[in-house]
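INTERNAL AUDIT FORM
Audit reference: QA-55
Scope: verify that the stored structure record matches its stored sequence.
Auditor: D.O.
Record contents follow.
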Amino acid sequence: MITNDVLRSVRYMLDLSDAHVVSIMKMADVDASREDVASWLKKEDEEGFAECPAVILAHFLDGLVIFKRGKNENPPAEPPKLSVSNNMVLKKLRVAFELKEEDLHKIMETAGFKISKPELSALFRKEGHKNYRPCGDQFLRNFLKGLTLCIRG
């Protein structure tokens, strides 16, 4: 999925201003200006559109976890990944919103998308695991739509 779409969806979901998006990025030690954020949030056909780098989205999602749950005083065992996959976006949003398996199923049902427990757990496996399944763009779009409906009502 396009990084700009994920950023736009999360911003809409939480009703964040550009300044608030900048402050969330600062929580993850990223210096982005309001102008940068504004250009990332524009549609592809609008003047001034700029593609959001994957590393920026990765840090934004880390900042979102800090924003929603607070800063973890124990540093992670592995360094943050600078590439973004749909599976990573799912994992970060699951952590940020403290979603359990039942919550994930409810979100997907709200979006009109049915998924079995094994299919869902396969999306959260480590890459290389025998049951790992890559998350498709359609699934991520439906997840973001369902999460938005659950949060915004």
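Auditor finding: record pair retrieved intact. The mean pLDDT is 91.
Action required: none
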